[in-house]
Every structure is written in C-alpha cells, then in structure tokens.
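[SOLVED] Need 3D model of a two-part complex

Original post:
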Amino acid sequence: MEYKELNLPSRTIMTPGPVEADPRVLRALSTPIIGQFDPQFLNIMDETSDLLHYVFQTENKRAFPVDGTSRSGIEAVLTSIIEPGDKVVVPVFGRFGYLLTEMVDRAGGETYLMEAEWGNVFDPQDVITKIKQVNPKVVAVVHGETSTGRLQPLKEIGEFCRENDILLVVDAVATLGGVEFKTDEWNVDAVITGTQKCLAVPTGMAPLTYNDRIERILLKRKKIERGLSMEAQNDRKIQSNYFDLSQIQDYWSPDRLNHHTESTTMLYALREGLRVIKEEGIENRIKRHTKHGKALSIGLKAMGVELFGEEQNKMPVVTIVKVPEGISEQAVRQIMLNEFGIEIAGAFGPLKGKVWRIGSMGYSSRKNNILHVLGALESTLTYFGVKVNKGDAAQAALEYYLEVDNPVVRTS
Amino acid sequence: MEYKELNLPSRTIMTPGPVEADPRVLRALSTPIIGQFDPQFLNIMDETSDLLHYVFQTENKRAFPVDGTSRSGIEAVLTSIIEPGDKVVVPVFGRFGYLLTEMVDRAGGETYLMEAEWGNVFDPQDVITKIKQVNPKVVAVVHGETSTGRLQPLKEIGEFCRENDILLVVDAVATLGGVEFKTDEWNVDAVITGTQKCLAVPTGMAPLTYNDRIERILLKRKKIERGLSMEAQNDRKIQSNYFDLSQIQDYWSPDRLNHHTESTTMLYALREGLRVIKEEGIENRIKRHTKHGKALSIGLKAMGVELFGEEQNKMPVVTIVKVPEGISEQAVRQIMLNEFGIEIAGAFGPLKGKVWRIGSMGYSSRKNNILHVLGALESTLTYFGVKVNKGDAAQAALEYYLEVDNPVVRTS
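Solution:
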C-alpha cells in the first residue's frame, strides 16, 4: 500500500471540541524544533506559564501544562493529591463527572457521588449539604458539562470549601478561555483545562494551575527519583511517575529538574494560542463566545427546533438541540458533514440519539460559522421532511448580529 | 508585558533528542484540525497503526501511540501489566534503566536490579542467570541508553524469556527507526518508542506495540468505565485511566470506544514521519544512521579527542566524547550553541561534566550536520586552548563520505 501526503477536506467544526485552531496557532506549529534546555525554549516555558496565569486569572505560584490530552491533567491532579481512603465528593451532572469518579476510584479514593438529571445542575446549597455530611478531603466537579451543555455555579461551593479547609478541584476543560472562570476569586484550589476547546489550540496538552494548599500535599508525597537514590522511599508516594506533579513542578521551576522531554511543538502552539487570547483580552473573548452562543440559540429557536436543558445554566459555548421525532440523528450529521463540510456532535449515555450538540468554541466561535451551521441544519432537516420555519434561522441570527455589532440604517 | 509571535533562532540539533523534525513533518503540523470521529481522521488512525507495524517490524494486532511524551508510553505498558508484588528484573546500564525501576516501583512491582558500570552493557548470559534466580513475571530493559551511548543485545534474552513464559518489555525510545530493532524476531512482548529521536517527529507521542501475551493480562484487568456502570469492579484493575491500555486499545479498534480525544496535530505529524520512513525504507534508514554515526566517530578520532565506552556495543546514533582535562564542558556547549547554533548535550549522573553526548538521529542524521558539528567542535576546543589535530576531523569524515557514497576520481 502506498501512503500519500495528508490531503484532508475542509471542515467547519461546530462540536464541543476538538474545534478549529486559530490560523496563527497552525502557523506556529510548523516552527522548527529547538532543544528542551535551549535558553530560548526555557523562555517559551516561562512565557507560557505567565500567560496561563493570565487566562486562569490566578496569582498561584504554579501554572503549566501536562503533556497529554485534557484527561491527563485531571488525572495528574487527582492522582497526585488523593491517597487510599481519602473521601471525595463528586457532584455529577453529565458524562465527564463520571470520569472524575473513575479517576478518584483508580487513585484509591472513596467517591461520594451526587447525581443530577442530565440537563440540570446542582443548587450549590445541596452540594454544601452533601459536603457537610461527608466531610471530604476533596470536592471534584466539572464546570461545564459538554455532554449536557450545562454550567455548574461554583462560587458558593468554593467559599464553603475554603472556610472548611476542603480542597476544590475543577475540570474547566470546556470553559476556560470562553466562559467566565475566576480561579482565585472563586476559591478553586486546582483547575485543569484542555487546549482543543475555547483556547483554539489542537488537542494534546492539559494546562493546569494549583495553589499552596495543593502544593503542601505534593511536597509530603514527594519521592526522590531512583537513579538519584535507590534507597529513597515515601510510603505516601504518588502512584504515577508521569503524573507526579511534585516532579513536574520542579521541571517547570527555575531548577529545571529533568522529568519528561517537554512537547516542543505543542508548547509553541499553546503559547501562541494564549498570546492570541491576551491580545484579544480575556473579557472580550468571553463576550465574543457569549454573543455567538446567543446568536446560535436565537437562530435555532427561530428555525423552530427545540433546545434541551434548563435555560438558566446553559453553557454559552454548547447548545443542545433535540432531534425532531422520526428522523435519524446520525443521518443528519452525515449530510451536514459530507455535503456542507460541517461537523456537529452526537451525544452520550441517556441522550444518545436524542440530541445534537453544537459547539461554538475558540476559533469556531465566529459569525460565519454560526450562520453556516444554521443554514446547513435548516436545509438538512428540510431534506428529511422536518417542518421548519424556512429562512428564519439565519435571518434572526443576522438581525441579532447587525443589532449588537454594527447598527446599520436599512435603506428601504 | 507584550508577547510577540514566536521568532526562534536557527538550530542544528546534535543531541540524543529532541532532534530536528523532517521538514515534511513540520509542514504536516500546520494542517487544519478535523474532528476525532471524522471518517477521514479514523482513516489517519488506521494508516498510522499500519505504518507503526512496518516500523516495529511486527505482526502484532496492536500498534498505536499513547498521547504523551516517551515515558508516558513506558508507564502505560508497565502500569497496565504489573500488579502489586509482581517480580520484575531490570538490567540497568544507564539513567533510563533507573526510570524503568521507578515505574515498576510505582506500579507496585518488586524490582530485581542488575547494574552495569556506565559505558558497558550486559552479557545476555548474565541477564539470563539473573532471570533464572528470580523467575520474574517481567523483564524490562532499555535497548539504547542515550545516557551512556550503549546498545544492549536482546535476541538471546528474548529467546530465553519466551521459552520460559516471561514477558520482555523493551524501551526502544532512542533506537526505533534508526537502529535495527526486530520486535517479533527477537521475541519482544511490548516495545515503546518516542517520536523525537530517530522518527524525526516532535516530542509528544509514545508509539508502542504489544502482542497477545500482554493483551491477555489487559483483558483480565479490564474494568468498565464508570458512567457506563457505577457498579463495575475489578480487584485487579489498572491504577490509571489515562494509561489503561485495555481502554486505549478499544479506542484504536474498529469499535472506536471513546477514551481520550486523540491529539490531532501530533497524529498528523506521526503519520507523516512514518510515511517518510516507509518511503526511505527501514533498512535504508538504518544504514543511513549507521553511516553518519560512523562518519562522526571517524571525524572525532581524527580530531584527537577520546570517545567514551566500549566500542563493541556503541549506539550508532549517540557518540560520547570525553571532555579534555582542564576545560569546562558547559562553556564549550555554550559557544557551540551561541556562536555556531549547534546544540550538543551534556550528561547525567556519574558522567555529568565529564563527557559530551552527540546525537545523530532522525533528520539530524545527515552529512552537513555531521561536517558542521565536527568543524564547530574543533574551533571551540581550539579556542579554549585544547590541542587538536586541526583540520583533520572534517577531512577524515569527508573522505569517508566520498568513499562510501560516491567514489570520485580526484584530479591532481
């Protein structure tokens, strides 16, 4: 078999990730390799850490990526702080909450589960009541659940945890850089994100930040690497070398203690993605994501399709559409992809086959993408015989855009 | 502070990795993102797996990358097969052997250590004797130790392990794609490599392959992910979700069971790097690496500097040079980097400050790089007052090249 050079079709990606990378990030990816201890590379590491502090809105000492996809960062935090028998409260309101329980379980922790019906989130007071009952070491929760398109309010939970010396770990994979997230103000002890969503960078790194409360645990669990000392032992040692944050933080400190070989190209991309965010300004970026999410919802409602989930805690960057009765959700996605070159997502678990998930994240969160996806969905549904308000979706979104962006006087 | 677009100096990288990526790989990195379940992306996954089979020279069912740097792949294999109390023999002849013991230890295994003086490797019979004494479940060993530049012969060890139903796990991070490695012929049960060395791809993925003997263990340790079933339990479950090969192999199988979000861009790069290897031909590529390694050694000897380590088991892709007495190894590397733009490496542990490590791997394994590094080292040593045979190094390498590549008749 002969293998040819990559020759991929053009795609408009309107899923909850991976989404389109900013073209400036794509360009940065082609930058030639420099060595991991080259002073110029160390400089890129420092700049990336600075920029992460900006995006996480934190004064924490530590902010760096783990070299792996989003879940690698979540596992790094949980496995580094959870010891056998530790109690962890996990409020679950969608698929990725269950992933947290999976990781707690594998780290030897005891999960105290709360489950909300898919489409809802928790009243913070209910979470606090559960925390009071359990008195856990850690509360681990997802901020934005892409499986249901819902956003969990965190401020009150954070306040209670801090007052009671409980650690709050948040999976902000789907929100950071597109939805308001205030690490310090909300008293979040550790936050993990992904690159392939609102940061508009390809998948493959998991930026995270944590504070001194987390670091104190890491230092107690630290073990000198074999090779430096074969005798070193620590009964509380972290069960992974790759995810040992006590070692990774040394690599990212001025000591530069060797751990893994930092992923050169992905770091170029992450730095560029963060630089672009700084240039846009984090508040402007969040406003942009809010605006395009709103335009999408307005358009879909005008089309006459039904949105899923309670409106109040909807993620601005994920919009969930109920599949009209009698049609195949997969067939619609196939037409969208093959004819329009637009990718939207199906669903997991109880929602599988019942909804589509439309993302508007990162570089994909822009006017032309929103207008295209509305037009394509309308055409496709019409093709399958669904009765929609023809022409209304794009028109409603267009009117919204012209109103908020650039009020023009129409000539009659 | 203002952050500008990346603007990096041009570097010639002659370290044992990360080395220069093939320019075709750099171009592939800029390819726009497509979704992880896009049929075109699934096709790239399949092609990458096929190409990995070619490079690993194996008929194994499984060959795929773990999304992380090289050591993530090693940890994935060890943590997926080693259970608490399992005996593991680890013959250590340099720094990266100790890393294996570190990972065995964290997975709960019992390490039975063998140590060779740095610069030597093991007589396979001595390893076999140790294996007979211990009767371990696993033997874990490094193929090429970049810390010492030595290559461990594996064939006899593999034969003995297979006959006695012991698993052989090999770290071929520094050798695969540049040095002969025959997974099936040598009876290796699991092999892990890195992208940033002889594959000429940036750091960030850990391709691996394993056979049915390994897979049988994975299947016994498999646990259904929470979210699908909260009740599912397995007392032998793998302690990591991210490194759970029983799950990752399902993601890479036709079932495409969701695990992580595959790192799009790095997979583009890996596929292109492997495609380029197939085009060159694995045997030709190994010959090329051997040739340039030999040219480098010939040049260095002609210069009058001393090489480190026994000649017989020298890695063709790493050449270790003793630092002449009375000069600072670091100062030499600084001049090389800042004035010539050439990076060579220092050393670890007992060799720190005493040797330089010069790599000739992947795209960096080429004529002009070898001739440049010889010239630059000669100039730099001369600058520091070391007596070298001026002009002889490049001349000797040049003569070797002209002889083996393209015998020309000199006009007098």
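Edit: The longest strand of chain B covers residues 87-92.
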